[in-house]
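TOKENISED FOLD:
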Amino acid sequence: MTINPGAAEFPHRQIGAQIRAQIQRGDWAPGERLPSIPALAAQFGVAKQTVQRTIDQLRIEGLLITRPGSGTFVRGTKRRMNRLSRGRYGAQRGYHAELAARYRQHLMIVAQLPAPADVAEAFGLDAGAPLLVRRHIVRTGDSPVEVGASWFKPNDVRGTSIERADVFDRPLYQEVEEELGRRYASARDQVSARLPTREEAELLQIRPDTPVLVLLHVAYDEDHKPIEVAQAAWPGPMTALTEEYRIPAPRAGLPDDEPGLALG
């Protein structure tokens, strides 16, 4: 691995491109420790500060993770999120054995807490209104990939298993449907990007300047009343949202130059 001192690209970016390519090729596997900064500096013939800039940049991208006292490790590959939250309900409203095998969800807290503004608004309440929250973290291997929470109106779940720190052997929405006697009929997803909170950065093991993708998922019953408002935060550089859909075929009788269909 070498750098070109005469290239327009800064040395730390050249080094970053080579390390990135090695990770993508699989030369360094997820969880593998990189050589030390002095060793990399000697290998590339640059100052240690240059390598440190490279490591910082790749940490922001989510490719590397630094564990104090242990070194810098390959974080892993992108997590592809198919169809936002639709996958949680399954094609036949069933349990996702494949997802359960790859991702482990750990329940962190079940408590009544002041609701964030966007959650409260989804319920038609004022910001800070007390709601029941079930907060969790999702890991794949040793890497945290999601921090999430499900919020409920306390009166809706009072006296049910939802307000207890129980771990269910089925999807949460199925437990809610049976306990509350309300069916999840429709949902709305909103995805945005922002910098993580301090807690999110610590739990996801990312730098505070690494952006996160944030999902707000509102699930409604058949009367279009919200049952659950769920939040999820994912490391932005390591998360890809994928949506596949059919494109309608042309309908006979419509002009080719129908207004509003041109792209230019």
